[in-house]
Every structure is written in structure tokens, then in C-alpha cells.
Hints:
mainly alpha, 3 strands
Amino acid sequence: MIFARITSMTSHSQRGLVLSHKMLVMSLAMKYKKTKTSLDYLFKSEHMNVQQMVSKVYQLEAMNELFLKAVDAKYHGHCHVCNLRDSILVVAVDSPTWMTPLRFELPDILQKLRGNPSLAGIIKIELKVQPPEIQQDVTYQKTLTQLSSETSKYYLTLAEDCDDPQLQQALRRIASHCDK
Length: 180
């Protein structure tokens, strides 16, 4: 249909239609342009290779050990260092419940960390709530609810009065789950 309209138009209007079509395609392409994820950036970046990424992971693990030495033992299972950017140590905490008391201890923790020469340049500790991933290994068992004989009779009556054969069959199946 669109192609039939294009062939019947004059040369001038065809150029206008083609230009507007190109503009539409370009605007849609810009609108739905694939955004880069952080992993895309890391793997395709000329600035960081795999060795540098591994080095960063080891650096964060070492900082995490030093951080855990500086905090009270009650926080050990609830927080960890997740990044160091612009001299700001970013710490992930698993819930706001643990973040609030930890926030009050940040000045003391920062002072302890600055005592270590490798962390002397830290200017601030930033806390972020990052709930742990919950692995649900729950198996659901299908339990059939047993109906009373009276309820079963109601379902059978409904099935007899129903005109739809599929619904009749479903109602009879439900009625078969009665106490015996």
C-alpha cells in the first residue's frame, strides 16, 4: 500500500517522503540505540585489559580485609568493600538495619583505615545498601484440597446446568476432590 502511494507521487514529493522516512529511521535508531553496560565497557575498553581487571579485584579484596579489621566483628557478615573511586571507599551493606549503626562509626573507621599507608588517601567512606541475593531452593508440592461432600454436590449440580463441555469437565474434576 505504501509502495503504491510512492510510485504514484511526483518526483518532488517522493524525495520529501524518502527524506522523512530516513529521518524517522534515524530517530528510531537513536531512540532504541543499545546502551553500553558496565561489562561491555570493561571488556571493550582500550583503557582496561583483563590483567588490570584482575589486579583491581585483588586490590578490592585486600581493601576489604583491611576494612573488616577496622570494623567491629558484628558487621563482618553484613558489609564488604565493593569499589574505590576518586579516593572514596564504597562499602556495600546488606540492609539499612546494619547501615545505620555503621554510619555512626564511620569517623573512627576512616581514622583506622588512614593509619594504613596504602589507604591513607581515602577521603570518605560511602555506604550503599545492596541486599544479598537470595537463592530460593524451595520445592513446592502440589496439595489437593479435599472438598466436603456437600460442596462436591454443588459443583456437580453446576456442571449439569452448564452448557460448555470444557467447563462441565473442569467442574466435575473439581467435584471429584471430596472427602470420602
